[in-house]
Design a protein that fits this description.
The complex is a heterotrimer. By secondary structure, chain B is mainly alpha-helical. Helix content of chain B is 74%, strand content 0%. Chain B has a single domain (34-301), classed as MetI-like (MetI-like fold). Classes of the chains: A alpha/beta, B mainly alpha, C mainly alpha. Chain A: Residues 21-271 form the ABC transporter domain.
């Protein structure tokens, strides 16, 4: 394992100053309780030994089916969950073991946009109050300045600043999600984790929100970790993409490289499911995966994907494939390339 | 949702800025639609005002005994008649109401505060804390309230203060379960997670974020609880284990009405205090029911 | 299912221990430490001290608790202060009266509440439905003891139809009619303690069933409305109601305190109130614990019935 890490580190993080967030061997296990005394009988390995790095100013897309651990990864990075093991290096400093008090300064730097615009805003508070809360928690600015900043932010996400006295229930889903984005921006963060920020929205509104996020990235010099469940959405916004399956990272590559030359059979299957965006595109043959995703409480031995992999070999059932760099910046965890 | 959203926003802000409805006004409007609830609120307001103003509006001294007037029927002198010691029933009802309503309200405040705090802690922190607190709730709930109430009141010597204390200490369990349930669902809502990602402290999340959303069912339960405490007070006082004479309460006024002579010749005496309890509790239940509908989050959200 | 019942039984243990600790704590903290016996106020301080020492009343609280608990587990609840009789004996003497009262009350509650609940549901929004709903509102707001007073006033005193109290006419031979004559009022008053709740519960349970697809299917097949409601609906609608019986137990046992006092019914509730005024702590504690244990058992029965009744729930 350490070998893989080293390889990855060497290539992606040659220039350390370039990296904003680096994740090393991150694990998040949830205990499973059962029986008369509710003893812990096992663990759900939601995130199992995941490593990657995000460079300043880029958008890193994290993709996988529901239940693959991508959201858990995001939530563990922002320390909503306690990591079971591994390091989370933000600007070179490990924040995985910090307590809430030590974490407070970092809370300003890493923010999150949530999936469900209906539950991510407190229904009892006005939009203005919701957006001012971060200032109050961190004791920033005077009352007048706060108001001014809130209005500015609302404008930035394309909402009328006069609406700040309204309650969330008076807005549509797309508008709510813009408010969620504005909240994530209040503290001038460096990194924003988007936890499937558009998957709950109508398709017509998805692209508007994506465009806003794109504009804001340029205006504020933001770095994004963009979590999504299909490759279609991340295609537009991402610079590099990581593909997760059952708690593990299968493939990491620059966007163009991943779409043109997917190496992992799982990535290939995912790509074949993306609808073509232009009639001139050659229709790829759809790869249908057999079976269901196995339970993360009892993942398959060896490569976790071998139960569904069309190219599985005997060896895959025994040994866990390591994430290795096949081409510059293109990592894959698959025995096919050994 | 065919139009570009920006237009929609613009239209909305132009049209509705003047006549938008706050959450509170929606709740009030919904409550006012429920006729029984409005009736309850109105009647209760009259009862409470009359009881509070008892020293000024009561026509007689509630404790003045005049054996010549004993068991006098309702009339111009004694509006609702007199009791077995010739005391004016109407005046005693007003003064007794002060006691009964005070017990009801203060005990409710105590029980709701304890229940909310314990339920919030159990629901928010979960794990062992939750398991311990909920077992405690199970133990307290296992005692049929009246036995434990009577035992405690008897051990501690009955008085209004003891009654309130014992009610509050034994009756918070329902609220705590309610609040715990609300916290369990709310603490994983994304707006709570969002509050954590901005570095908000647990105390602030519990009291500033989750509790306001959890208060709807608590307010309903609290309203119903006042009625429940008034019933409990009257029962204990009736049994001689609550408010002690000569101080009047709606319950202890009935204690001495149990006699064949009174039942035969002075029906007003046992009737009116009971009616007062019935009407007051009924009002609280009507209001509680109205609040339940008005505070229903499904209605408010839409 | 078996594991569920076992787990439920194991969960009872800490609750029962908690109940016993709370009961003991109240008795221990009561003025004059009346834990085991009633001391004659006239005896000298030394005698008193010697007595206390002999009876172990100077031991630390937890030792006293364990000793007391040991006795309780062997069925020895101590002796009554005022009646100089074993508490177990006192309770056993009065238990049958309370049981009879509770059985008759349950019967009355069921035959009144369930039909009204069903009718109210099948004729939702009718005048009858509003009437039933309003009456249950009134019922919930009426103090049980006052309803008893009013009924005694009207039926026993004014009309002279029923006796004022007691189990049977004093000095008479056993006579079933005489017994029924005596029990009808107290049993009715006790039954009202849960009647409003039971009616509402029946109504909502029936409504839920009536609105389900298979009822609509039965209706669409052209069955008569009566057949639909009573054959298809009732059976499924009443299942959840059975579970409520477990929960009625504590209400009735609590209600018996008031009703038995009101009607001079020589049962556990009356014994409890008498003991309270006499400061007869062993009796008070024994009945409180007894009632608590019954409540726990009632809840257990309700939970288990519910688990058996509803095949959708897995354990």
């Amino acid at each position: 394992m350490t070998e893989t890490l080293k390889q990855e580190k060497n290539s992606i993080t040659q220039d350390k100053s370039d990296v904003l967030l680096e994740v090393e061997g991150l694990k998040k296990y949830f205990p499973v309780k059962a029986g008369l005394l509710q003893k812990t009988v096992g663990h759900i390995k939601a995130v199992d030994d995941v490593s990657f790095a995000i460079k300043k100013g880029e958008t890193f897309g994290l993709v996988g089916e529901s239940g693959c651990g991508k959201s858990t990864t995001g939530r563990t990075l922002i320390r909503l969950y306690e990591p079971t093991d591994g390091k989370i290096l933000f600007e070179g400093k490990d924040i995985s073991g910090l307590n809430e008090k030590q974490l407070k300064p970092y809370r300003k730097d890493i923010q999150m946009v949530f999936q469900d615009p209906y539950s991510s805003l407190n229904p009892r508070k006005t939009v203005g109050t919701i957006l001012e809360e971060p200032f109050r928690v961190h004791k920033l600015y005077s009352k007048a300045e706060r108001k001014e900043r809130v209005e500015h932010l609302l404008e930035k996400v394309g909402l009328n600043p006069d609406l700040r006295n309204r309650y969330p229930h008076e807005f549509s889903g797309g508008q709510r999600q813009r408010i969620g984005i504005a909240r994530a921006l209040t503290l001038n963060p460096k990194l924003i984790i988007g936890d499937e920020p558009v998957s709950a929205l109508d398709v017509s509104i998805q692209s508007q929100v994506l465009n806003i996020m794109d504009d804001l990235q340029k205006d504020f010099g933001l770095t994004y970790l963009f979590i999504a469940h299909d490759l279609g959405v991340v295609k537009h916004i991402s610079d590099r993409i990581g593909v997760m399956y059952l708690g593990r990272m299968m493939e990491v590559a620059p966007k163009r490289e991943l779409y043109s030359n997917p190496l992992h059979p799982y990535t290939q299957a995912l790509l074949s499911a993306v609808p073509k965006s232009h009639p001139s595109e050659v229709k790829k043959e759809r790869i249908i995966l057999k079976g269901d995703v196995p339970s993360p409480s009892n993942p398959p031995t060896g490569c976790v994907f071998h139960t569904r992999c069309p190219k599985a070999m005997d060896h895959c059932k025994v040994e866990v494939p390591k994430l290795q760099e096949l081409e510059p910046g293109h990592f894959v965890a698959c025995h096919l390339y050994n | 949702m065919g139009k570009p959203e920006n237009n929609v926003i613009q239209q909305q802000s132009d049209q509705t800025l003047g006549k938008r409805r706050s959450l509170l006004s929606i709740i009030v409007a919904k409550f006012m639609q429920n006729k029984l609830a409005v009736f309850g609120l109105f009647t209760l307001a009259i009862i409470i005002t009359a009881c509070v103003l008892a020293p000024w509006i009561a026509p007689h001294d509630p404790n003045f005994q005049n054996l010549r007037n004993r068991l006098a029927p309702p009339g111009p002198e004694f509006w609702l008649g007199t009791d077995h010691l010739g005391r004016d029933l109407f005046s005693r009802l007003l003064h007794g109401g002060q006691v009964s309503l005070t017990v009801g309200f203060v005990a409710m405040l105590g029980a709701v505060s304890i229940g909310t705090t314990i339920g919030a802690i159990a629901g928010f922190f979960g794990g062992r804390v939750d398991a311990f607190l909920m077992r405690l709730v199970d133990v307290i709930i296992s005692f049929p309230n009246i036995f434990l109430l009577i035992t405690l009141v008897a051990v501690l010597e009955p008085s209004m203060e003891i009654l309130i204390l014992v009610f509050a200490l034994l009756s918070w369990t329902g609220t705590s379960r309610l609040v715990r349930g609300e916290f369990l669902t709310l603490k994983n809502r994304e707006f709570v997670l969002a509050a954590r990602t901005i570095g908000m402290s647990n105390t602030r999340i519990i009291f500033g974020q989750i509790l306001p959303s959890a208060m709807g069912p608590v307010i309903v339960a609290a309203t119903l609880a006042v009625g429940g405490f008034i019933l409990a007070e009257s029962t204990l006082s009736f049994l001689g284990l609550g408010i002690q004479p000569p101080r009047a309460s709606w319950g202890n006024m009935l204690t001495y009405s149990q006699s064949v002579t009174i039942f035969r010749t002075a029906v007003w005496y046992p009737t009116f205090p009971g009616l007062m309890i019935l009407i007051t509790v009924l009002c609280f239940n009507f209001i509680g029911d109205g609040l339940r509908d008005a505070l229903d989050p499904r209605v408010v959200e839409k | 299912m078996t594991t569920y019942i076992i787990r439920r039984l194991i969960m009872m243990i800490p609750i029962l221990i908690g109940i016993s600790i709370l009961s003991f704590a109240i008795m221990y903290a009561a003025p004059g430490k009346p834990t085991v016996l009633n001391l004659d106020p006239d005896i000298s301080v030394e005698d008193r001290e010697r007595q206390m020492e002999r009876l172990g009343l100077n031991d630390p609280a937890h030792i006293q608790y364990l000793r007391w608990m040991g006795n309780v587990l062997q069925g020895d609840l101590g002796n009554s202060f005022t009646r100089k009789q074993p508490v177990t004996q006192l309770i056993m003497d009065r238990l049958p009266n309370t049981i009879i009262l509770m059985v008759v009350s349950t019967f009355l509650a069921v035959i009144i509440a369930i039909p009204f609940g069903v009718l109210s549901a099948t004729r939702q929004y009718s005048k009858l439905d509003y009437g039933v709903t309003f009456t249950s509102f009134i019922g919930l707001a009426t103090p049980n003891f006052w309803l008893g007073l009013m009924l005694i006033m009207v039926f026993s005193v004014q009309l002279g139809w029923t006796p004022v109290g007691g189990v049977s006419t004093l000095g008479s031979e056993f006579n079933l009619l005489d017994r029924i004559h005596h029990i009808i009022l107290p049993a009715f008053v006790l039954a009202t303690a849960d009647m409003a709740g039971l009616t509402r519960y029946t109504r909502s349970s029936m409504l839920e069933v009536i609105n389900q697809d298979y009822i609509r299917t039965a209706r669409a097949k052209g069955f008569r409305e009566r057949t639909v409601v009573y054959k298809h609906g009732l059976r499924n609608g009443l299942i959840p109601i059975i579970t409520i019986f477990g929960l009625m137990l504590p209400t009735f046992i609590g209600g018996s305190v008031v009703v038995e006092t009101l009607f001079s019914w020589p049962g556990i509730g009356k014994l409890f109130i008498d003991a309270t005024f006499e400061r007869d702590y062993p009796v008070i504690m024994a009945i409180t614990m007894f009632a608590a244990v019954l409540t726990v058992i009632g809840n257990l029965i309700a939970d288990i019935l519910y688990a058996i009744m509803d095949p959708r729930i897995e354990y």
